[in-house]
Design goal:
This protein is mostly helical. The chain has helices at 3-17, 25-32, 36-42, 46-62, 71-84, 86-93, 98-120, 128-151, 158-186. The N and C termini lie far apart (57 Å). InterPro entries: Homeodomain-like_sf, HTH-type_Tx_Regulator, HTH_TetR, TetR_C_Firmicutes.
Length: 187
């Protein structure tokens, strides 16, 4: 286990003992057996560590499921990864770091959607600004659904949510691209 993983485990363990707002870098460095300078070599602060934890967990969960054929699987894996880390997610979402986590999730989702848009629009005359608009719309919708689910205590079955999202995206995603292409051809 590398230093970053040890720090992540130490943070998770400390979060079981006390709120995130009361955890210090000294708490983590003592638990891992490193000095503060080693912590700062890897992270600027605890919130950057949290962001790294989300990044690592998300990348592990999604893996290669980021294509037009597999984005639904990737989204389902993201929901399940969040659910499997429920206590950690709920505590970090209640903290000041929530904005950082949301930005990170938007970035991950945008990459998934851009891959799907590029596959769907291959060979079509779709402007980059239109791809970005479609990606922005869907990333906000999908992460909004994820965040609402988290705020609601993650009570609903994530597979049911993703199945319904897939219907909405399938029935709206391709027609949106087609409409942008048609509008461009008419100009």
């Amino acid at each position: 286990m590398d230093t970053k993983e040890k720090l992540a485990e130490a943070l998770r363990a400390k979060m079981k003992e006390k709120p995130l707002s009361r955890i210090t870098i000294s708490d983590l460095t003592t638990a891992v057996g490193i000095n503060r300078q080693t912590f700062y070599y890897h992270y600027h602060d605890i919130y950057e560590l949290i962001e790294d934890i989300y990044y690592r967990e998300t990348m592990r969960a999604i893996g290669n499921d980021n294509t037009i054929e597999t984005w639904q699987t990737g989204l389902a894996k993201l929901f399940h990864a969040v659910q499997n880390q429920k206590d950690f997610v709920e505590q970090t979402f209640r903290s000041i770091s929530r904005e950082h986590i949301e930005d990170f999730l938007y970035s991950i989702m945008e990459n998934l959607i851009i891959n799907a848009i590029n596959a769907t629009s291959a060979g079509l005359l779709l402007k980059e600004e239109d791809k970005k608009l479609v990606a922005d719309f869907y990333k906000h919708a999908l992460i909004g659904m994820l965040l609402s689910w988290v705020k609601d205590g993650m009570r609903r079955n994530p597979d049911e949510i993703v199945a319904k999202i897939e219907i909405l995206a399938r029935d709206g995603f391709t027609p949106a691209i087609s409409t942008f292409v048609k509008n461009r051809q008419q100009c």
